[in-house]
Amino acid sequence: MKKVLIAALAVAVLGSAVSAEILEQVLVKVNGEIVTQTEFHRIQINALRELPNQPDPGRLSDAELSKLLAQVTPQAIVTVIDELLLMQRAKELSLAVSDAQFGQVLDSIKKDNKIESEAAFEAALKSEGMTLAQLKQMLSKRILIGQVQQREIGSRVDVTEAEERAYYDAHLSEFATTPSVTLREIQVNAPLDPVKKVASVGAIEEAREKAAGIRERILKGEAFEKVAAEVSDAPSKANGGLIGPISLDDVNPELRKLIEAMKAGEISQAIRLPRGYQLLKLETLAPTQTMSFEQAREHIGDRVFTDKRKAEFQKYLEKLRSQAIIEWKNQDVKKAFEQGLKQQQAAAGASQ
Asked: Three-class SS of residue 98?
């Protein structure tokens, strides 16, 4: 099985020739409909492309390709079977995709990818090695599966307040804000030595004394923002030295410790920088806050609904599989399918 898959996959990726007998090998029959090597092959390629940080499959060695195939094949065969069952159900329900529906989805794809002309669209399809007919087939399948899911699952999923509150209590951290701070700064840079391109010790000391003098002006009553606009060397001088709000998680530990010890309106001592000194004024320090249940309820409802619909959809697929007549023509493919189902069950258990 693995050798056949590696050979077939390498052929498709590299564009080599292969006999129709190998490519059209029937792997399984589902309610009388066949899944060929070619169809399964397409799903495998898509699965490989979706793996994060993977190189071009055409450049992989047989050993590397074998390892990736072992990773994606179980879920790939589950996807093949489930898609076929759902398409069969769509036919039973007399569902169809109209030209208008397809056109709307196509327009959305063009808009999302900023494709403004038919020529650009055709070029994009060509770069993906896809024809318009193939794209229409793929999108139509997605639309029909979505219609089946909505018809058979979505209309039956209901979310109660008790479920929303249970989710809220179990996921409080999701509704908590991170502490943030808003500051004003004045930066005093020491001039660089034109030859050595670094500030001298004397220049650094002059910058420290200048920063101390600026601090005295502010403590005697001058507005921090006015002085910042007048003397600061930082780009923030255009905004009166304003920086933030910024998350305290993004502030280095030493500076965070200093900020958390300050009171609103307080001016720091001069802080040493690589090229000079900095004064900080604490404007606001917003602590961690947690949204109330009422504030978060709309988001909670969406999340609970999505989780319930996903769980119900898996139950629905299990029902379709149990009712289907599945005739395996390749025992290795059957084993991969069973492995894929176990992986799904393990993932579902881990997420609960």
From this structure: coil
Question: What percent of the chain is modeled with pLDDT above 90?
Answer: 43
Using CB atoms within 10 Å of the CB of residue 312, give its burial: 0 to 12 exposed, 13 to 18 middle, 19+ buried.
Answer: middle
Coil, strand or helix: which one is 189?
Answer: strand
Burial of 262: CB neighbours in 10 Å, binned 0-12, 13-18, 19+: middle
How many Cβ atoms from other residues are within 10 Å of residue 221's Cβ?
Answer: 6
Could you give the 3-state DSSP secondary structure of residue 168?
helix
Cα–Cα distance for residue pair 300/294, rounded to 1 Å: 10
Q: What is the dihedral of CA 330, 336, 341, 342, to 10 degrees?
A: 130
Helices (H), the chain: 2-14, 20-23, 37-50, 62-92, 99-112, 118-127, 132-152, 161-170, 201-219, 224-231, 253-260, 293-323, 331-351
Q: What is the CA radius of gyration of the chain?
A: 31
Give the closest residue to 75 by CA, choosing from 352, 345, 311: 345
How far apart CA 219 and CA 222 sit, in angstroms, is 7
Q: Which residues pair with 36 in a beta bridge?
A: 26
> Which tokens sit at 45?
């390629």
Determine which helix (DSSP H) or strand (DSSP E) holds 327, and give its type and residue range: strand 326-328
Are the beta carbons of 250 and 208 closer than 8 angstroms? no
Residue with tokens 């319930």: 308
Amino acid at 181: V
φ, ψ of residue 302 to 5 degrees: the values are -65, -40
Report pTM.
Answer: 0.62
Distance between CA atoms of residues 259 and 253, nearest Å: 10
* C-alpha to C-alpha distance for 133 and 98, rounded to whole angstroms: 15
> How far apart (Å, rounded) are the C-alpha atoms in residues 199 and 193?
6
Residue whose entry in the numeric block shows the structure tokens 């029902």? 319
* pLDDT per residue as tens digits for the range 296-342: 998 899 999 998 999 899 999 999 999 999 999 989 899 999 999 99
Rounded CA-CA distance 1/332 in Å is 6
Q: Which pLDDT tens digit goes with each residue over 133-167?
A: 888 888 899 999 999 999 999 878 889 999 999 99
